[in-house]
Design brief:
Layout lengths: L1 H22 L4 E2 L6 H19 L3 H9 L10 H20 L2 H55 L3 E2 L1
Antiparallel strand pairs: 1-2
């Protein structure tokens, strides 16, 4: 249940973060009286030119962002850490004369160490997701600059 909820939240975050991708499209105004048919033709040609010039396909970038897998959920690092800690603590406790106390102390220490490992993995996954999103945003910004330059050269106002 927890894992399903975690995946739903992660999917919602990815979807929310990919919305700005679409919102960055420039607004085009036909400042020299171009007809809607001419504007559509010019925009199509400028999209093709911008894609060829920059090597960026905005549809592929948007799909790539939307298809990123959700960040991994908890993987049981705390449980594994507790088990390892309990084993080690029991061994040390047996030497000191109280294996049960040693196992309990080891389990607590192992749980904490497992939690640290789990947080580090989650932080690394989040950093990778942010880096991928930043790279996609930069690629789209480059594409949009080329697209705008092409349309401005054809007499359109771009905002």
């Amino acid at each position: 249940m927890f894992r399903i909820r975690h995946l739903c939240v992660a999917s919602a975050v990815v979807a929310a973060l990919s919305v700005p991708t679409y919102a960055q499209q420039p607004i085009v105004y036909p400042s020299k009286g171009q007809t809607p048919a001419q504007q559509q033709k010019d925009q199509g040609e400028c999209m093709a030119w911008a894609q060829q010039t920059t090597g960026v396909n905005p549809m592929a970038v948007a799909q790539g962002e939307a298809n990123q897998p959700p960040p991994p959920g908890p993987q049981g690092e705390r449980v594994h850490g507790a088990a390892r800690g309990a084993l080690g603590g029991a061994a040390i406790g047996a030497i000191a004369g109280d294996a049960g106390k040693g196992a309990a102390i080891g389990a607590v220490a192992g749980t904490m160490a497992g939690g640290v490992r789990q947080r580090r993995k989650a932080d690394a996954a989040q950093a990778q997701t942010q880096a991928n999103q930043q790279q996609a945003q930069q690629a789209l910004a480059t594409y949009n600059r080329a697209y705008a330059a092409c349309l401005e050269g054809r007499g359109y106002t771009i905002k």
